[in-house]
């Protein structure tokens, strides 16, 4: 069964519950659409943003969706996904990722 799923993923077919679902497979609930709009506003105005939420609420999926819509020549996305970071660790992670 797993071999069939891997084969489907490599053939670029739409596979539900994959790590990187296609944008057209995402369910646009009102909460998801509001979070996406807020993140897009943050990008548009060049704000620094932090996204928090419950485990399994779709934070990583939302960020991946947003990143897929951005021009990589214009934007550098820093994705720190470690729970419980101290402020110093957070700042160091940003500095290290920025170059």
Quick structural summary:
By secondary structure, the protein is mainly alpha-helical.
Explain what the structure shows.
Helices cover 46% and strands 0% of the residues. The protein has 99 residues and is mainly α. The protein is globular, with a radius of gyration of 16 Å. It starts with a helix and ends with a helix.
Order of helices and strands: HHHH
Tally of contiguous helical segments: 4
Give the uncertain stretches in residue-range form.
none
Rounded average pLDDT: 77
Largest sheet: none
Count the E strands.
Answer: 0
Distance between the termini: 42 Å
Q: What is the share of helical residues?
A: 40-55%
Structural class: mainly alpha
- Which radius of gyration do the C-alpha atoms yield? 16 Å
Beta strand %: under 5%
Shape: globular
List the topology elements:
Layout: H1 2-10, H2 30-44, H3 59-68, H4 87-98
Keywords:
mainly alpha, 46% helix, 99 residues
């Amino acid at each position: 069964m797993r071999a069939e799923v891997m084969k489907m993923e490599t053939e670029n077919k739409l596979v539900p519950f994959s790590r990187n679902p296609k944008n057209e497979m995402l369910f646009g609930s009102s909460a998801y659409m509001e979070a996406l709009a807020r993140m897009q506003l943050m990008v548009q105005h060049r704000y620094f943003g932090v996204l928090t939420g419950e485990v399994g609420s779709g934070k990583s999926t939302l960020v991946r969706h947003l990143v897929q819509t951005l021009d990589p020549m214009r934007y550098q996305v820093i994705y720190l996904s470690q729970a419980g970071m101290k402020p110093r660790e957070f700042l160091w992670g940003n500095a290290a990722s920025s170059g």
